[in-house]
Amino acid sequence: MLSASVANGTAFHPSTFILLGIPGMQDQHGWIAIPFCSMYVLALVGNGTILYIIMTDRALHEPMYLFLCLLSITDLVLCSTTLPKMLTIFWLRSHSISYHGCLTQMFFVHAVFATESAVLLAMAFDRYVAICRPLHYTSILNATMIGKIGVACVFRGLLFVFPFVILIERLPFCGHHIIPHTYCEHMGIAKLACASIKTNTIYGLTVALSITGMDVVLIATSYTLILWTVLRLPSKDARFRAFSTCGAHICVILVFYIPAFFSFFTHRFGHHVPPQVHIVLANLYLLVPPVLNPLVYGINTKQIRIRIFGFFMGRR
What we know:
single chain; mainly alpha
């Protein structure tokens, strides 16, 4: 039976997949789309403003702001990879997506997530050097080093996610082509296959634990060292400002990683988790950080806040 399905070619390359949206909540799709669309607009405006301010003001071409610029770019790509299609599902009932379109979306979702994870690590390292090694800041994070870090962030995401495409391409799809989700992701597609997906599961776990998991450990280590240094500051005001800044950063990082890991492990082990909970949280880690990052990393920074105020008041 399987060989016959494979032989006709459609088993390997179905023409389309059907993205169901949020199972059991189809009647509320129109209303659910409103907060998602609102957050998407906020993400576009916030990150677009941060990018414009930093790119047009040479005084902000410093390591911290350049990393923030890279973070805004990844945020824009991350939410734009899924939200437009999601809104057409919710409002226009356009559930179909081509096979190659689905694989393209899957690739960018995972690659950009891995890239943003690396950027958050780079920003944590930047803060560590600035606070714990201030005398060596300019020598360590010079223009050449920042360029290398940026390229490494992007290249690492592409390198480790591209095998996902190969692993999906090798699978036969001889059953239904309905994905109970709002966007295409690796395990969501792999589960439709009529063959063993053990290799997909093992590789996915390896990438999550060894790459993204290592980012979490290193980020936690950086902020632990930062807080240890802050505790030894003589000024209470300086300690308060440092704690408030680091606390905001840590909250955004938790919002980014916790839903992501919840979604990742639910695909493999959370068979009793309601699909509505899984899918909503899977959407939050792609949308909430792009909304919060401009506020926490951008507007919370005095230099950018002053320039944004001047921009909207009509002054450069």
